[in-house]
Write a structure and sequence with these properties.
Layout lengths: L4 E3 L10 H5 L6 E5 L2 H5 L5 H20 L3 E5 L10 H12 L3 E5 L4 H8 L4 E5 L8 H8 L7 H12 L3 E2 L2 E2 L30 H13 L16 H14 L1 H7 L16 H6 L4 H13 L5 H25 L27 H13 L4 H15 L3 H11 L5 H12 L16 H7 L20 H12 L1 H4 L6 H9 L2 H19 L5
Helix pairs in contact: 3-8, 7-13, 9-12, 10-13, 12-13, 13-17, 14-15, 15-19, 16-17, 19-22
Length: about 500
């Protein structure tokens, strides 16, 4: 029997992967490869590269122990072809295989490379997701607006999670109104479970340090788990120690507690070490056992079977050009302080510093601090998209691009969000303690020391008035602006333009 090559990518480290399910262990050959193309098509955070490579090596070892014929290429192997397609062709020549079976990648870029590879490639659906492309297209067809909430309800019905008969548990689909509390005075949780690198991971860290030391981000300390067993430990730790308070404080931010009660499971989920259903079932059981309040458990599973599935559906529905969209025609370059240059804005400085050290920031830090500023300042969304893809360990294009292009930057013109997610400094002050240590004063609206978020918020609304003035969800914003004294409005706009001019000149702002 002629062997086939079974491709397993670095974010497909799941025993139930469709390509492995289709394979014949007795004759087919699994191919895995650490390649320069994938490690460097953007300048990924060193922690992200190390996580993927270390997890790949351990997954490959588990497959070998399970009896698979596996050909693994390390990044520094002499014969490494440097690309996924190049490695497939090299292994095909080596083995005589004439066909490749793979599970569909999560990026159009790699899908196209495999689709047009000079070897026959059979691409299978990725069954690790609850909604197939056809499922999502069927749900989206004929709808005037593709809002996540209604898709989420379909996923609840499909999975039976948090359902009581035909209705939602507790009588409500969504408990988000209970999940917006500001930061607590005390946090009684030390954060996600941390793991000490073993010898195999240490080898990967040495490799990454040697090859990617010039990438933004700190490689050490490296504390991610790199096996399914460790990912399951991290899940159990979160359910036991953090989930009970996750709901209340999921939007809060504190300088001294970077993750608060967040799970930090997304890196494991997005590379395949955990599955979405098992995570949600663990949260549901904790609620059923009376250990976790419903607002915490429901809010957590909504992020997974609701938002995560929804943004993947949007990514594939909208097509390869989605990442190039720029509905608001923003063209300012991404400021240097996103790469660690000095800034007087404490919220930005803290979020970027945390990103550099941890390759992680939670959703409000991404949406309402770094994302909010970029949108208010009119930064080119393509540059914002590339930054998020580079700096976070859980960032893969299918999940990152819709969150950035759609939710954060409104660059898709409203496919995802019904309004831009912009706020003044008041929101950041309410939900964090960042403003207390800032050179700017959040209470100052104009003049010396005025919070840039205050100035840029009104500047954004003014310059995009024609687009948003009739948006039902933004009416109050424009009515507040219009009630201001005309001289004050002019002062705000002049101050905003002066501040942006200093930003563009490279001054420390």
């Amino acid at each position: 029997m002629v062997s086939r090559l079974i491709l397993v990518l670095g974010d497909q480290l799941s025993e139930g992967l469709s390509a492995l399910a289709e394979a014949d262990k007795g004759s087919d050959i699994v191919v895995m490869a650490e390649v320069a193309d994938e490690a460097g098509y953007v300048r990924h955070h060193p922690k992200k590269i190390a996580l993927v490579f270390a997890a790949m090596r351990k997954f490959a070892q588990a497959l070998k122990e399970d009896g698979w014929d596996l050909r693994y290429t390390q990044l520094d192997d002499t014969h490494n072809a440097g690309s996924i397609v190049g490695e497939l062709l090299r292994r095909a020549e080596e083995t005589g295989a004439q066909e490749v079976i793979c599970t569909e990648p999560g990026e159009w870029r790699l899908i196209d490379k495999l689709k047009y590879a000079p070897i026959r490639v059979q691409m299978l659906p990725d069954h690790r997701f609850l909604a197939s492309h056809a499922d999502f297209e069927g749900w989206a067809e004929g709808r005037r607006a593709l809002r996540m909430e209604y898709f989420y309800r379909e996923m609840r019905r499909k999975t039976g999670l948090f359902m009581e008969g035909d209705g939602p548990a507790g009588g409500q689909w969504n408990y988000d109104h209970d999940n917006r509390k500001p930061a607590p005075d005390d946090v009684d949780h030390d954060g996600p479970l941390r793991f000490e690198p073993d010898a195999q991971t240490a080898e990967v860290l040495d490799l990454v340090e040697a090859r990617f030391a010039d990438h933004f981000g700190d490689l050490y300390p490296f504390e991610f788990g790199t096996t399914r067993a460790q990912a399951l430990e991290a899940l159990d730790h979160f359910i036991t120690h953090a989930l009970p308070k996750f709901g209340d404080y999921q939007d809060a931010m504190l300088e001294e507690h970077e993750t608060l009660y967040h799970a930090v499971l997304s890196p494991y989920l997005n590379i395949g070490l955990l599955g979405p259903i098992e995570i949600c079932q663990a949260a549901e059981k904790a609620w059923q056992d009376g250990y976790v309040p419903i607002n915490a458990a429901e809010g957590f599973i909504r992020q997974i079977i609701g938002w995560r599935e929804y943004v993947r559906g949007i990514y594939f529905l909208e097509g390869p050009d989605y990442v190039t969209r720029n509905a608001l025609r923003h063209d300012r370059d991404l400021p240097d302080f996103y790469w660690g240059a000095e800034t007087k804005m404490n919220c930005i400085a803290h979020a970027v510093r945390q990103t550099k050290t941890s390759a992680y920031a939670h959703h409000i830090q991404r949406l309402m601090v770094t994302g909010n500023f970029a949108l208010l300042a009119g930064v080119d969304p393509a540059q914002v998209h590339e930054w998020y893809l580079e700096v976070y360990a859980d960032a893969f294009e299918w999940v990152e691009a819709p969150n950035t292009i759609g939710m954060s930057q409104f660059a898709d013109g409203g496919v995802i969000a019904s309004k831009p997610y912009v706020s003044s400094g008041a929101y950041i002050n309410r939900m964090s303690n960042y403003c207390k240590g800032c050179a700017y004063k959040v209470s100052v609206k104009t003049g010396e020391g005025a919070c840039p978020f205050n100035l840029l918020y009104w500047h954004f609304l003014d310059r995009h008035r024609d687009r948003f003035k009739d948006n039902a969800r933004m009416g109050n914003m424009y009515r507040t602006w219009d009630r201001m004294d005309a001289d004050r409005r002019e002062t705000v706009l002049i101050d905003a333009r002066k501040w942006l001019k200093r930003l563009d000149a490279g001054e420390v702002v």
